[in-house]
Amino acid sequence: MKIQTILFIAVFLLSCSLIKAQDKYLTKKGHVWFFSHTPIEDIEAHNNEAAVVFDSKTGEISAVLLMKSFKFQKALMEEHFNENYMESEKFPKGLYKGKVTNLQEIDFTKNGSYKGVVDGTLTIHGVEKKLNTNCTIDVEDGKLEVKSKFTITPQEFSITIPDLVANNIAKSIDVNIDLELEVYKK
Amino acid sequence: MSTKKIIILAVVFIIVICGSIGFYMFNKTFKNIANANPDIIVSDDQIFSEFEKNETTATKKFVTGDPIIEVSGVIAEITQNADTTTTIVFQNPAKYTGDISCTIVKTDVEKTKKLKQREKVTIKGQCSGMQELIDKEVILIRCIICDNK
Fold it and tell me: Which residue of A28, A88, A143 is the best one to mutate when testing the B interface, meaning the one whose CB has the most B CBs within 10 A?
């Protein structure tokens, strides 16, 4: 009897810790890219080093990326982006802090594709702005693939584009997110 | 030659020069990291401790102006990424608390396939800065593997 009780308690505690371990998901290799289209030229840059933490219990998301990790095809574009537009020396990071507000609609233990509604703030170039967006969360064997798309304008983040190149850069920039999140094990 | 002809020639000359400069700048290429001498040579614990001590100063030194950084360390992790790059992570818990992530360019991926954990390796690349959200990580991109010294 006593052994059975001990065994029961042990299994119960073990399963509790396992369930808790499923709460935090993360990646250090999140893919964030943006695209600007104008009749004059298309500009595209890829960042494959975004760090993202997602708590599936609370819905909280935190993301950090380094501006200097954005890779352009043209060296001159990359230089302008960092030195003139983003002033990456002054503002080296982009931050997102948000929350998935429809957690009850997502079952992280069941494989499938779910829609996520995210409310939060994006801080780039030293300016903090509200950014609410939708995302798709694909659950597959405990791993999450999160995809999202939204647009931002250089203006709202006080990014000044010189008149000379104003027609080379779109008024609104498409930003894409593709993250492969894995359970935090430590 | 008449004055008119000289002026026309001078204007054409100026246009050609400006055009060439513009063309050169527009097609400016990225530094050839593989062939260039490094601007800064450090060990993994040296670069990490500078970032940990003062992130702003370290960013000015290792990030601003895109200096080519040569870093040596012991491989803790080596991951082949989906986009065909490879990421090598340096760790040394005895000397520093976080890690250094070096993403190796596609053209050097074959070299990375011969590398194993706990092996010492030297890489050359560009530093983006430090991320503190997950562990503390100094990030290097556009890295190549240096041939054995």
Answer: A28
